[in-house]
Amino acid sequence: MERKYLGEFEEIVLLVVAMLEGEAYGVNITHEIIEQTFRKVRLNQVHASLHRLEDKGMVISRMGGATKARGGRRKRIFTITAYGRQALHDIQAIRNKLWQQQPSPITHAIQI
Amino acid sequence: MKDNQPFPTPPRWASRLLKWYCAPHLLEEIQGDLEEEFEYQKKLNGPKKARLDYIFNVLRFMRPFALKRKQNQYPKTVYHMNMSRHYLLLAYRNVLREKAFSIINISGLALGLACCIVIWLWVDSERKTDNFHNYPDKLYNVYYTLHANGLATGGQTIPRGLTISNYKDYKNTFLLADDLKEAIPEIQYASMYTTGYELPWGHPVTFRHGEKLHKLEGSMADEDFFKMFNYPVIAGNKQKALQGKSIAISRKMANMFFNSPGDAIGEILRYENKLDLIIGAVFEDLPKESSLTFEYLISWEAFMAGDVEEAISSWHTFIQLGNVKDRPVVESKIKDFLSKYHEGKEFKIELGLQPFNQMYLYSNFENGKPSGGRIDYLNIFSGVGIFILLIACINFMNLATSRSVKRAKEVGVRKTIGSSRSQLVVQFLGESVMLSFLSLVLALLIVQLYLPVFNATTGKQLLLPVDDLYFWSLLTGLTLLTGLVAGSYPALFLSSLDPVRVLKGAFRFRKSAIFSRKGMVVLQYVVSFLLIISTITVTLQTRFMQNTNLGYDRENLIYIRVEGELIPKYGIFRQRASELSGIAAIDRSSEPPHQMKFAVYAPIKWEGLESESNTTVPFQPTSVGFDFLKLMKLELVEGRGFSRSNPADTSAFMVNEKAVKQMGMKDPIGKWISAWDKKGKIIGVLKDYHTKSLHQPIAPIIVDVKEDLFFGDIVVRTEPGKTKEALEGLEEICREINPDYPFAYKFLDHEFEKIYHTEQMTARLSNIFAGLAIIISCLGLLGLVMFSIEQRRKELSLRKILGATISNILGLLSKDFLILVSISFVVTVPLAGYFMNEWLQKFAYRIELTWWIYAISGLAVVLLTVIIVFIQAFKSALANPVKYLRSE
Questions:
Q1: Beta strand pairing call for B246-250 and B275-283
Q2: Nearest residue in chain A measured CA to CA from B28
Q3: What is the mean pLDDT of residues B205-225?
Q4: Residues B773-787, mean pLDDT to the nearest whole number
Q5: Is A30 within 8 Å of B35 when comparing Cβ atoms?
Q6: Nearest CA to CA, how far is B501 from chain A (Å)?
Q7: What is the rounded CA–CA span in Å between residue B420 and residue B414?
Q8: For B815-862, how does the pLDDT look when each residue is reduced to its tens digit (9 = 90+)?
Q9: Chain B partners of A66 at a C-beta cutoff of 8 Å?
Q10: N or C end of chain B: smaller count of CB under 10 Å?
């Protein structure tokens, strides 16, 4: 299995993009991350990692509808690609494999 | 910040900043996201925090991914090549369509450029003087500063009187160069230097080898001279060239006496028929960048031995430092070097270092320190050159700007079909750069044709340095800059026009544009006025100096040096020469009478002199023959002149009015004076006459008779129209009496004019430059008048229909321009007055700056303006108004 490099933050962004399913763009991704992870995240960070993800081919984008709140400007809507999904699954699989090999007390301790 | 407005928006500047830096393809989404976030934050935290947050967000987005521009997907090359061909074609058509404008524009700029190039060539060649030596920054000349009577004076050469401890003891002269080298180890080489041809005693020296006799001008120098300066030795030994009783000669001189330079080495040249010198070396003829000029160099040792005559008793001391950094050390050591020999005297002498390559340009001394000199003229003319170019540029710009009105529609159309602003800027800049390069070609042509004339006027040998890369790059840069500056206003202004308004025909220049154009016209006129006024002043002053009554008649005078056998046989010579036909009078003088340079500070005593200390006044001594008054046609105020029939007159004196005043004598006739070991009575008082250039005031003169002096000049007045005959006769007698010396003579009026060479050159050059400036300004004016008529065509036609006469229209058109001329005249007068007064201060005898100098220049310019306006205005005043009104 080829190693796909995905940073921790990128992984979260990618997960959120997958979660929002066709509604993912800069602002709501940011808000989603803030709400779900309690991190202090900035718009520019999200934009930067979305661009990186697009460069890696894990998301694709198109220009979507405009709303009044945006001063009539269009959004860039991101959707996850199959390759992106595969990457998430791979990471998940590796994690699971490693988790299963943990001696049980630690597993417990962390799971609590 | 406006917090309480109903719909708070993000700060405008932050949005603009974002728009400016952000890559276009990302701008929309980022703007949108930021705005949405702003609205969200506003609801959550209030507008104040939201705005702050917005600003920080904008700043945070300054990251590579947002800054990086996307590459254009469409290849540009083909499209651009077509466009540039199109631009070129258009520029060409424009030049052709507006022939008059194009000619004015291009030729005006070409003249300005040509003028600038010539001045630059001249200034550059002057600045290169003495810069060809190997270590220009290690070579220095030692100058002196003398503090006496509260005054500081100085000079580049140190008077011998100051370098010896005992004035009377001439044998005890010590050599400053050798002493300095011994006392200050930082000095690597040192050499004395003095010429044999400077005034007051200098003259071309006669050399003999076998039968060959030649008169040549040269100098004396120390052994170290060839080690310090880059005068390449082509034969003989450089190290030993100036040791013992030897001489080094130039290639030219070697070829005069011998077959080749190599043959000259070891041969003997006889100096003035009294001293044999061995040729130690032959050096290459001096480059024209050398300010020192000499055909030969006699070793200092031979000079000190006594038989070589000195031309002036103050000598140069040149030193070369071992290390550039040692200058401050040497300066501090050298400063009081001579003071120890002059302790307890009422004057104080200091020495200083002047870089050798600055000697030529900074030869004047002020307060005992080197100050200006030739450099002043260089600066003035550089200024003139820059100003003329400026005028030409202003013209170019004005014309281009005004002409651009006609192209406003073109710009409108271009913009509508999608031309971007930068394309328009490039088009207009390109056009003006192209025109300026056309001008450059024309300018180079003009320079090439004009340089021979310029060389003849200034005595320079300037050439276009065709192979000099620096010159070309400078020229290209200058032209490019001119083109860009000239094209900048139309380019930036036109490209900013709103196409809709232009195409509707609502096109007007802004007030500020018109104002600045008028300002430029005023500036042009100021420069032209300044140049005209200074030309008139310089010309008048030069003419004044040439025509001033000097107090003697300088026509038909020639003079011959007293040398060789002429010294003992002067009486016979005078006798025989006066019998020749064509000779009106003959006598002698210790110095050429038009430029006497002796001055004695040695004590002179006179009857009624109260205290002995009152002898600081320098008197000018001259010794003449018995017939001097008759020869020179000098006027007597009282008493009588010298008379051959009265032998006691050899111990008598004559003085001039100035001397009488200086001595404070009343009724001077019969009173005694004692000067240079001789005491005698005053027999006559001469009316003051000029013995120096008119830069200096008349000096007090004391005259006595000495017909047996071993130096001086024989002065001969020929009868008008018989000069040639007289010269032939004189030559014959000279050859007979004085066979060891070639016959050489000088015309006094010719030499007199040479004194004012700089002024004459300045006058001629400023004539040329003022003419150029006027031509260029007129061209500019012509263009502007044409333009203003063009613009007001409809107005003028309407006026005519409503009954305006031709003179009404002429008046209307010329009024505007005459106002500009008057404004610039008012600005110029005080400026010109100030500068010209400064310049005239250099002359002891000078013209007054009268009102009519200004009046003439003012009148001339007004007349020119009116003529130009009228010629142009007449055409439009006579035109049929229907022709221009038909279309609307």
A1: parallel
A2: A73
A3: 88
A4: 78
A5: no
A6: 29
A7: 8
A8: 888 888 889 889 888 988 898 888 888 777 888 888 888 888 888 888
A9: 32
A10: C
**How far is it, in rounded angstroms, from Cα B205 to Cα B271?**
7
Q: Of A29-38, A51-60, B14-23, B788-797, give the lowest mean pLDDT range.
A: B788-797
- Do residue A26 and residue B33 have CB atoms under 8 angstroms apart? yes
> Which residues of A are less than 8 Å from B31 in CB distance?
70-71, 73
What pLDDT score was predicted for residue A1? 44
- The model's pLDDT over B465-503, given as tens digits with 9 standing for 90+, comes to 877 888 889 889 988 988 888 788 778 877 877 777 777
Query: A3: distance to nearest CA of chain B, Å?
Result: 25
Nearest residue, CB atoms, A71 vs list B32, B57, B65:
B32
CA distance B4 to chain A (A): 20
Answer whether B33 sits within 8 Å of A69, measured CB to CB. no
Beta bridge partners of B680: B673
* Token duo for residue B852: 């009519």
Do A51 and B63 count as a contact with CB atoms less than 8 A apart?
Answer: no
Rounded Cα gap, residues B200 and B169, in angstroms = 22
Q: What is the DSSP letter of B363?
A: -
Taking the C-alpha atoms of residue B834 and residue B247, their distance in angstroms, rounded to an integer, is 52
* High-pLDDT (> 90) share of chain B, %: 4
Of the candidates B691, B714, B456, B693, the one whose C-alpha atom is nearest the C-alpha of residue B585 is: B714
Partner residue facing A27 (CB), from B36, B60, B63? B36
Where residue B441 falls among pLDDT bands split at 50, 70, 90? very high
- The string of pLDDT tens digits covering residues B594-642 is 877 776 655 677 777 665 555 456 677 788 888 888 888 888 888 888 8
CB pairs under 8 A between A and B: 60
Question: What are the chain A neighbours of B61 within 8 Å (beta carbons)?
Answer: 43-44, 47
Contacts of B278 (CB under 8 A, 6+ apart): B244, B245, B246, B247, B266, B267, B268
Q: What is the pLDDT of residue B166?
A: 46
Which ipTM value was assigned to this complex? 0.85
Would an 8 Å CB–CB cutoff place B66 in contact with chain A? yes
CA separation for the pair B355, B330 (Å, rounded) = 13
pLDDT tens digits, A87-99: 999 889 988 999 8
Enumerate the residues of chain B whose CB falls inside 8 A of the CB of residue A70: 31-33, 35-36
Chain B environment of A69 (Cβ under 8 Å) = 35-36, 39-40
B520 in Cβ contact with B387 (< 8 Å): no
Q: Check: CATH 1.10.10.10 for A8-111?
A: yes
Say how far apart CA A13 and CA A56 lie, in whole Å: 14
DSSP B187-237: EEEEEEEEESS-TTT--PEEEEETTEEEEE--EEE-TTHHHHS---EEEE-
Question: B33 and A75: CB-CB below 8 Å?
Answer: yes
Alpha-carbon span B857 to B537, nearest angstrom? 11
Q: With an 8 Å Cβ cutoff, are A73 and B32 in contact?
A: yes
Confidence class for position B6, pLDDT limits 50, 70, 90: low
CA angle B221, B225, B230 (to 5 degrees): 130
Best of A25, A27, A50, A54 to disrupt the B interface (most B CBs within 10 Å) is A27
Domain ranges of chain A: 8-111
0.80 surpassed by pTM: no
Mean pLDDT, rounded, of chain B: 81
Say if residues B121 and B455 touch (Cβ distance below 8 Å). no
Identify which of A36-40, A65-69, B455-459, B794-798 has the greatest average pLDDT.
A36-40
Residue in B with minimal Cα distance to A77: B29
In terms of pLDDT, which residue wins out, B562 or B888? B562
Suggest the residue from B27, B33, B68 to mutate for an interface test with chain A (most A CBs closer than 10 A). Answer: B33
